[in-house]
Amino acid sequence: MEKILLIPRENDIQHIRNMLDMYRVVAILGPRQCGKTTLARQLNASEYYDLENPVDLNRFENPKLLLEDKKGLIVIDEVQRLPDLFELIRYLVDYHPEQTYLILGSASKMLIRQSSETLTGRIGYYHLGGFQFSDMDAEVLNALWLRGGFPLSFLAKDDLTSYRWRENYIVTFLERDLPQIGFRIPSITLRRFWTMLGHYHGGVVNLSDMGRSLGFSDHTIRHYIEILEGTFMIRMLQPWFVNMGKRLVKRPKIYFKDSGIFHSLMTIQNHEQLGTFPRLGASWEGFALESVCRMIEPDVSMVYFWGTHQNAEVDLFWRWGGKNWAMDFKYMDAPKITKSIRIALEDLNLAHLWIVYPGKERYLLNKKVTALPLEQIGTKEFLK
Asked: Is the pTM for the entire model greater than 0.70?
């Protein structure tokens, strides 16, 4: 791992450049330490301000005087610290066509709500996570699964150093980051809840049942879920359902967005421990699902899962190009077509379904079903 000094993130950079051609303001949203600042510094900004830097923060005591005469691309990092800036940015982009803004933030729902209300029609959003498989070679896939995509975790000199970095990240997130954006919850309480969510990773959740088992009210459970979802720590995957005369699953699934954070909360430090982890399959399937979601979401507005109460299901479903597509994720040696997949093909009228697995060989199971190695999803070529 020591030989990897820098991971080029060409896909992310190209998506951001394309958005800057379309919008006067682009927001890169993602968790702290996922690489937002590093990417922004590669975009040749004329001005760069970091609102976590006390010097830069003090300069924004008179933001209109500071920004009005600037030209080119202006980057403002950790913009959630000054939400009142959005009204000024609206004025500046309307009356100063020589200015474009790239704003970076770590709290998605709050930032989207504040900025969309003020910058409607002027702003585009790009969600950035840590490193993804399309950024690197197949040989480091297992390291990415164990350590997750946060750059300093993935690039650590060994697995123990990576684990310790993530432990410190979790503590800082709970004790510093959340209070800074207005969430006053005892860190030990939220960590206990976050850890317990690991037992639901990849599963359908009944929030009321979860609340009873954990001793929390429904309101508290929903609030904690909203916090972790809004700060990019978990994904609530919603079910796809239409009125087709079958009893369909209508509750969401929950996934940890970063496999390394999941492993830390489960106290998994290395590959040997991961190999004997009782939820090994769920860990890999969640990692694979998030890898695919990261790749397709710039082009696909929403992703879902689908399931019936008769145990037919697919892990990922989306609509694109007027057609329906799906994926299933299986930690196994040789995927095959099951009764569940046959039902999904018919009921969802799928154009194609891929069974993603950790093997090496891609092969057709029939004209609409392909067994696909995870290492081959680095680009959208697999869609062809």
From this structure: yes
